[in-house]
Design goal:
Layout (H helix, E strand, L loop, with lengths): L21 H6 L15 E8 L13 E7 L6 E6 L3 E6 L4 E5 L20 E2 L6 E6 L3 E6 L4 E5 L1 E3 L2 E4 L6 E7 L5 E6 L3 E6 L4 E5 L23 H4 L2 E2 L6 E7 L3 E8 L2 E8 L15 E6 L5 E6 L3 E6 L4 E5 L15 E6 L8 E6 L3 E6 L4 E5 L14 E6 L10 E6 L3 E7 L29
Antiparallel strand pairs: 1-2, 1-30, 3-4, 4-5, 5-6, 7-8, 8-9, 9-12, 10-11, 13-14, 14-15, 15-16, 17-18, 18-19, 19-20, 21-22, 22-23, 23-24, 25-26, 26-27, 27-28, 29-30
C-alpha cells in the first residue's frame, strides 16, 4: 500500500526517551536468555527500488534505482531494516540512523527542516542498540541493556491506529518498562517481543490474527475494551511452554518453543495461502497453532508467502505463487507445504529476506540472489521484470564484493556490502559517494 506523504504537524512533539533507572540497571543482571551481541562485520550501505520519499538515501533528485547503488556518506553499518517507505541502519557503535517517509513518525526523529527526512540521521536513544526492526509505519529496537523501544504508528483497515492509546509517537518510547527483552521483530503493523524468561509479548493490529492473543470479535478494536487490548503490549498464552525465538512476517507471527527435549514452531495470523504452514483457512488464526516446521534457523515472509531457513542453511518456501515470489519457477498451483528452493541447493545461505511479493538470499561467500515481483525495481537486477527463480545480482556495487545483509520493504531494498580495509586492517570509512544520475522511471503496474 502506497501512502501519501503528509506534512509533519509542528505541534506534535513527544518527550525525550527516559533515562536509565535503577530498575533498568537491575535488569542487566537478571538471569535467563542473554541479550544478543551486536553484529560486528562492518559494511557500506546500498539501495535500489523506488525513492518517492527518500527511502533510498540518495537525495531528492533520484526517482529510482534499478541496481544497488552506494548510499553516500554512510559507513560502519552492521545491520539494516527496510520499512514500508522508510529505512533504518545500525552502526558498529550501536547508533540507529533513519531516512524516508516520516508522515506518521517512523523515523523517530525531528524532520521539521525541509528535506531532512531524505538524509540518514541518528535517532536519539538512551543506550547503544543491538537490534532493529521496521514495519509499514513504525520502527523498533532492542538496547544492549534489554530495554525495547518503538516509535511511529500501527495501521489497520480503518487507517492510523497510533502506536499507543495516546496516538502516534514521533520519538522513541520504551515498551513494557518492567521487562527485560532479548529479541524484537516487526510485521507490517504489529510488533513482537521476546523476554529473557521466554515469554512473548505482542502489540499492534490484530485484524489478521497476528497478535495471537485477541479474539476475532475483539480484533477490530470495537469491543468493550476498545483498542486497549491491541495497543497495550500483553503476553501470548504459550501454555507453560518457553519461547527461545520469534519471527514476524507481514501478517503472521511464528514462535519457536521448547517442548521437553523437542523444539516446535507455533504460528498465528493470516493463512489464506498456507503461509502459516497450516491447512488453508479463509479466516485468520487468532491463537497459536503447532506447525510441522522443523530444524528452523529463521523464518521470513511477505504478504502471502513464507520462507524458512533451516539449520543446514537450506531454503524452503510455501504460499502464493504469483510473480515468482517462491523462487521455484513456473508452477500451476499455490504451494501448500514447504518445498525446497532448488536453485539455492548448492549455496550455503546465511540470511533470507522478503518484501511484500519478492524474496532475497545472502550466501556465506557474499553473493546475493533475488526473485519475485520486479515492477518496483527493488529486486536490483536492472530490470522491472519478475524473476521466477533466484537470480544472482551482478551490478557494479555487488559484483566481486561480499554482501553481508539484505532487507526489503514496500518498494525498496537495502544491502550491506563488506567495507574495504586499509593495510592495517582498519575499516576504510566512506566519506562521500559518486554523483548519482536519475534513472528511468518507467515501470509496470502490479498485476
Amino acid at each position: 500500500m502506497v501512502r501519501v506523504k503528509r506534512p509533519l504537524p509542528k505541534d506534535e512533539i513527544d518527550e525525550p526517551a527516559a533515562k536509565t533507572s535503577k530498575l533498568q540497571s537491575a535488569r542487566r543482571k537478571s538471569s535467563g536468555i542473554e541479550v544478543p551481541k551486536r553484529l560486528t562485520i562492518i559494511g557500506n550501505l546500498l539501495s535500489c527500488g523506488q525513492n518517492e520519499v527518500g527511502q533510498l538515501g540518495l537525495g531528492e533528485d533520484v526517482p529510482e534505482k534499478t541496481r544497488p547503488a552506494l548510499v553516500p556518506n554512510v559507513s560502519n553499518v552492521v545491520d539494516l531494516k527496510a520499512g514500508g517507505m522508510h529505512s533504518l541502519y545500525l552502526t558498529d557503535d550501536g547508533k540507529i540512523y533513519s531516512f524516508g517517509c516520516n508522515d506518521e513518525g517512523a523515523l523517530g526523529r525531528d524532520t521539521s527542516v525541509e528535506g531532512s527526512e531524505h538524509t540518514p540521521s541518528p535517532v536519539d536513544l538512551p543506550a547503544p542498540c543491538v537490534k532493529i526492526s521496521a514495519g509499514d509505519s513504525h520502527s523498533g529496537c532492542l538496547l544492549d541493556d534489554g530495554r525495547a523501544f518503538a516509535w511511529g504508528s500501527f495501521r489497520d483497515s480503518h487507517g492510523n491506529m497510533g502506536l499507543t492509546l495516546d496516538g502516534n509517537k514521533r520519538f522513541p518510547i520504551e515498551i513494557v518498562p518492567s521487562v527485560k527483552f532479548v529479541d524484537i521483530d516487526s510485521g507490517a503493523d504489529h510488533l513482537v517481543l521476546l523476554s529473557n524468561d521466554g515469554r512473548v509479548y505482542t502489540v499492534g493490529c490484530a485484524e489478521q490474527g497476528q497478535l495471537g492473543r485477541v479474539s476475532a470479535r475483539s480484533s477490530s478494536g470495537e469491543s468493550r475494551r476498545g483498542k486497549r487490548q491491541l495497543l497495550v503490549p500483553e503476553m501470548v498464552n504459550l501454555k507453560r511452554l518457553k519461547a527461545d525465538a520469534i519471527f514476524a512476517t507481514t501478517y503472521c507471527t511464528f514462535i519457536r518453543v521448547q517442548n521437553g527435549s523437542a523444539e516446535n514452531i507455533l504460528a498465528f495470523g493470516l493463512n489464506n495461502y498456507w503461509q502459516l504452514g497450516l491447512p488453508k483457512t479463509d479466516a485468520p488464526l487468532f491463537t497459536p497453532r503447532p506447525t510441522k516446521f522443523t530444524n528452523v534457523k529463521s523464518i521470513v515472509g511477505g504478504q502471502h508467502h513464507t520462507l524458512v531457513l533451516t539449520n543446514d542453511n537450506k531454503c524452503w518456501a510455501i504460499g502464493r505463487k504469483e510473480y515468482g515470489r517462491l523462487g521455484i519457477g513456473e508452477v500451476e498451483n499455490d504451494v501448500d507445504a514447504l518445498v525446497p528452493i532448488e536453485t539455492l541447493n548448492n549455496e550455503k545461505v546465511i540470511q533470507l529476506a522478503c518484501g511484500e511479493s519478492c524474496s532475497f538470499a545472502v550466501t556465506e561467500n557474499g553473493k546475493v540472489f533475488a526473485w519475485g515481483f520486479g515492477s518496483n525495481n527493488q529486486l536490483g537486477t536492472g530490470s522491472d521484470e519478475d524473476a521466477l527463480v533466484p537470480t544472482l545480482l551482478t551490478g557494479q556495487q555487488v559484483k566481486d564484493k561480499q554482501v553481508i545483509a539484505v532487507a526489503s520493504g514496500g518498494q525498496h531494498t537495502l544491502f550491506v556490502v563488506k567495507a574495504d580495509s586499509t593495510k592495517n586492517g582498519e575499516p576504510n570509512k566512506q566519506n562521500g559517494g559518486p554523483k548519482v544520475a536519475a534513472a528511468d522511471t518507467t515501470s509496470k503496474k502490479k498485476k
